[in-house]
Mobile element protein (Klebsiella quasipneumoniae), 182 residues
Amino acid sequence: MRYDTLEACHRNAFSFFGGVPQEVLYDNMKTVVLQRDAYQTGQHRFHPSLWQFGKEMGFSPRLCRPFRAQTKGKVERMVQYARNSFYIPLMTRLRPMGITVDVETANRYGLRWLYDVANQRKHETIQTRPCDRWVEEQQSMLALPPEKKQYDVQVDESLMTFDRQPLHHPLSIYDTFCRGAA
């Protein structure tokens, strides 16, 4: 995944949830971490753009420990759950009707699935419904930073332009200069 895609996904998620978590847990992706334990144990060298984005949004990036299923599994199980409980049944239902599952269709059906199915079941790890846990977790979310405004820059036409001599010359001039100086 390219970094700009990763950042756009984060911005969309933060907007959807109406806030920013204090920490974001990552797998060891190249767009996130350049070197684990670069400075000392637990002090990683993160991708500079991600580090800056985290400062801008107010969250701290955190990495899953390698070869530790407890943290990495949390991330991967969610993807598997969404695939098996949402995506495959959706494809099975829509394909016979000739409906293509594009981004808009997946988002429309996905929101309904989140509210009606995924957030209503009792989650095995937290032993409560995600919608109930979300009410608690919202309290610790950081506010979204104000959107940066884009300004158009207009060049004043009264600015004067000066003719400039090129700063480089043909190589023969440098050759002559070097021979004369030797």
